[in-house]
Amino acid sequence: MPSLTVIPPKEAGRTERARHSCERGHPSNMTPVSAAVWLLFLVVLVSSIGVKWRIPQPALLVLAGFFLSFSSPFHDFHLDSRTFFALFIPPLLFADAWLIPKRELRKNFYSVILLGFGLVFATVAATGFFVHWMIPAIPLASAFVLGAVLSPTDTVALNALISRISLPQRLVYVLAGESLINDASGLVSFKFALGAVLQGHFTWPGAIRDLFWVTAGGLLAGFVIAYNIHWFRQLLSHRGMENPTVQTSLSLVTPYFAYMAANSFGASGILSVVAAGLYAGISDVRDLSGSLRLHAASVWNMLTFVLEGFVFLLLGLQLRRVFSAISPIPVFHLVTYSLLVTAMIILVRILWVFPFSRISWMLNRIHARNLPPPSWKSVFLAGWIGVRGAVTLAAALAIPLEVHGKPFPGRDLIIFLSGSVILLSMSTVILTLEPLARWLNIKDPGESAEEEQMARLEANQKALAFLSARAADETLSEQQRDLLNRIASEYILRIRELEERKEGSDNVRKSLEEEISFRIQALQEEKRVLHRLREEHRIDDQTLRRILRDLDLVEEGIRSYHPR
Asked: Ranges for the Cation/H+ exchanger transmembrane domain (predicted)?
């Protein structure tokens, strides 16, 4: 086996657990269950405030965790670093890989690879040397750990920020693909940098052998795990056991199985999770029924919301102890370090995207001859949007407390700088992205909306043609033919509505909005009648819930179909 096979932060776990046996634990005056409940409640409360006042939720959660750390129940809150990494990273990466558009990932393959791998390694190297030069007290190996921690961008934070403005879809897809790939490459870099600190040496031949092993083994393990779990889910469906709860539960354990399987033989659990998520994203959409997809989407949305919130809240809980550990360093120096490291991250990104965007365009033209070159405005904006988030936090907090019985060199300062870069990068993008996009005159040309409109219209037209052909079958009874004609009339109305939407005039848009409003009002009246029938004891609770569920699905479909 290769000599450098460190699974963060397993190797330092023995000494860490020996000296900090309480770290697996919880607040001294609380049970683990009550602590988890209070933290979950705080995540929901703070996130609601952020949505209401349009304040970035990560910043609010970090502040809430920081103030919470002064309360006696959470004064000495710690979480075992290995547990933290294994608990939070797999589902977050799996969800990102599951959701990313696969066709766009293939179309922008070279752009994503050059950003997701090349820029990560450039960031690790530049940040490592710069931080070691600026703060000699941080060894070069520890500085590379910081560079690896800061190299991945955050998909969830990125989506939250760019969803408020209209950007070209190609730019959005490239950034999303980069966030997914650099999560994996950044965490693999983190593993190697951490291994150099833990083992005290680093050799390029050993690192290259390890890189091949962890990459190939991780990707293969993830594919095998996802394939077999999907096969088992299909088997259950074919045997009449298509229970949404069971099927979604199998989906939830997939990233953990992929992570553990790869780690068990020294491969990359991170790449294994990404491979499993990519495969599951393709196979689930293709093979699962509509009810299963709806159920799984709801559960995964809730899970990622909670995990993202927990990560930022836990960072805030660590800040008081981090500030205490770095208190000998003057505040002015800490602020200067934070600003300079953030500026370095942004500068490296901008310097990278300009030459390599041209290289990726030339490579992409091998497959798409008519692909227009990216404008310098879009390239600059892609370089400016480099938000760090949950994966950076999870990696920083996963750094072990000790190395060979001694404190990990620079750990508290690394965590502080990681949190500072996250907050500064988010704040910078939040304050400047919209005016910058407006000043550069960058906006979505509407290709995605046109594609959706075309797909809806063509699908409905094909369905109508199928119904018309079936109705012409002379072997059908009159009753069957009437049913088919009734269904066809609904498709005719839907096609007419889609064609009106295509016109896009203000009068058509207003008419469609009024129609949707009337439909929702009618559904609300149905629900009021059902509640009255329940109060009069003419129906029971089970009947009420069953009918309400059907009406809720119809209403959700109408709301999601609102004209843009």
From this structure: 45-438
pTM confidence score: 0.74
Q: What average pLDDT score do residues 447-472 get?
A: 84
328 upstream amide cis, omega within 30 of 0? no
**Amino acid identity for residue 226 in this structure:** A
Best CA proximity match to 430, nearest among 158, 183, 171, 178: 158
Q: Residue 389 in contact with residue 296, Cβ under 8 Å?
A: no
Beta strands in 353-434 (DSSP E): 402-403, 406-407
In 298-421, the DSSP E strands lie at: 402-403, 406-407
CA 215/CA 184 separation, integer angstroms: 10
Handedness of CA 293, 298, 304, 307 (dihedral sign): negative
- The tokens for 90 are 């797999």
Amino acid at 453: Q
**What is the fold of 46-445?**
Na+/H+ antiporter like fold (1.20.1530)
Q: What is the pLDDT of residues 86-101, one digit of tens each?
A: 888 889 889 888 888 7
Q: How far apart are CA 428 and CA 343, in angstroms?
A: 11
Residue 133's Cβ-side half-sphere holds a number of Cα atoms within 13 Å equal to 9
Q: Which residues contact 195 (CB under 8 A, 6 or more apart)?
A: 4, 5, 6, 11, 202
- Which residues touch 235 (CB under 8 Å, ≥6 apart)? none
- Rg of the chain's alpha carbons, rounded to an integer? 26
- Nearest residue to 196 via CA among 132, 133, 264, 116: 132
Q: Residue 189 and residue 144: Cα distance in Å, rounded?
A: 9
Q: Name the packing angle between helices 169-199 and 376-384 (round to 10°).
A: 40
Alpha-carbon span 289 to 522, nearest angstrom: 29
Confidence band of 301 (pLDDT split at 50, 70, 90): confident
Nearest-5° angle of CA 286, CA 290, CA 296?
90
Q: CA 43, CA 55: separation in Å to the nearest integer? A: 14
> Angle 447-450-453 (CA atoms, 0-180°, nearest 5)?
150
What is the C-alpha to C-alpha distance for residues 562 and 514, in angstroms, rounded to an integer? 10
Q: pLDDT by residue (tens digit) across 225-272?
A: 999 999 999 888 888 777 888 889 999 999 999 999 998 988 888 889
Q: Where are the domains of the chain?
A: 46-445, 446-504, 512-563
Under 8 Å CB-to-CB from 225, ≥6 apart: which residues?
254, 257, 258, 261, 272, 276
